[in-house]
Amino acid sequence: MKSFFEPGFIRMGKSKGLVRVVPFLAVLLVLGLGACDSERWKKIRERHQGAGDPAIEVAAINVEAVYPVRRDMEEVLELTGNLEPIEKVDVYTKQSGMLKRVEVMAGDSVAENQLLAKVDDEELQLSYRQAESAYRASKKKYESYRNLFQQKMVSAQEFHDLERAFRDADINRDMARIRLENTEIRSPMAGTVVDRRCDPNQLVGSMESLFTVARLNRYRIPISVTESEIGKIQLGQSVRVRVDAVATGPDDYPYQGVIAEISPMVNPQNGMVAVRVEVPNPGGELKMGMFARLRIITAVRAQALAIPKKALAGEGVNQVWVVEGDHGRLTPIEVGLRDNEYVEILSGLESGQMLIVEGHAALTEKNRIQVVNHPVKPATATDSRAL
Fold first, then answer.
1. CA-CA distance, 163 to 142, in Å (whole number)?
2. Calpha distance 270→222 (Å, rounded)
3. d(C-alpha 363, C-alpha 61), whole Å
4. Less Cβ crowding at N or C end of the chain, within 10 Å?
């Protein structure tokens, strides 16, 4: 009997035998091709997955890193407000009429009781002179009848009528004098005319506001502090003040104010407490209504371990990327005081650990990193700059 692999085997079999052999050969052929195909794709995958081919390796992410530093930290409450004069008064007319003259302009300094404007007083001058004349005549007659009354030469009724007429004349004279004096509009206090609302030859009524006078040597700044922060401030506490209009730089807080008033109640509508800060203006460069920025120091920590705020990763979570070889490790931290640039580290980070400050936005722990700025680890990692 011939072997299955001998040439004549297929020919010698009957048709029924051929039907059984052909499918078997087909299976062998598919298996052989599959083995070749599997080996070929394995080599292709190894080549394109970077095995032995550096050009196809995933590139490292460039990052910038720093070391924590020691620096003085201040917790600062930052608020804003507008300058208001502590003392301000509106000056009103007391006598209606035509303004005869206006003596001052807005911005002028005035003394207490200084004349600001004058209402035309020609008619009132005549009225006063008439009242003065009537008073003198009444007084002369009264004094004459008083002597006669003492000598019992006139009746008591007649004398009392003259006495009453004399008193009425005195009152009329005083009223005429007051009306005449009221034509002069004077400043009730020393200060600066901050607003003038009148011109000569203008018709004005009684009790019409014409000027505003204020003392500008000292301002108040009304602010609102949250209920949670009100316990951090107190009366008499120092406040740094910056006025954008006259500031020389973003960190220029040259004015020293003080907390002068703290409301004893919390506004139920917004949960805020009204606070008033006062700041001196000896040079006069500050103007009423100017926008001011305030910094109230609520806590101080000397030589605290601190990192730049931009090193913090994630939203609402205190964590940083610590450099470990050519990878980064996301590390939770506990923070303390904060200022404009830095945040204090209470735990979770040592002074000698390098951390990423730039390039960590889309970083994962599987990514390779390359520190491009090569920070030098300081011996003491100290930044003693005072804020």
1. 6
2. 16
3. 8
4. N
What is the distance in angstroms between the CA of the first residue and the CA of the last residue of the chain? 105
| Of 238, 239, 243, residue with least CA distance to 286 | 243
Tokens, residue 14? 């009957």
Whole domain around residue 272: which residue ranges? 77-86+216-300
* 296 and 307 share one domain: no
- Tens of pLDDT along 187-227? 999 999 999 999 999 999 999 999 999 999 999 999 999 99
Question: Taking the CB of residue 205, how many other CB atoms lie within 10 A of it?
Answer: 10
Handedness of CA 363, 367, 372, 376 (dihedral sign): positive
Buried residues in 275-296 as b, exposed as e (16+ CB within 10 A): bbbbbebeeeebebebebbbbb
Q: How far is CA 213 from CA 57, 87, 100, 274, 298, in A?
A: 77, 9, 21, 26, 36
State the pTM of this model. 0.65
380 in a domain, yes or no?
Answer: no
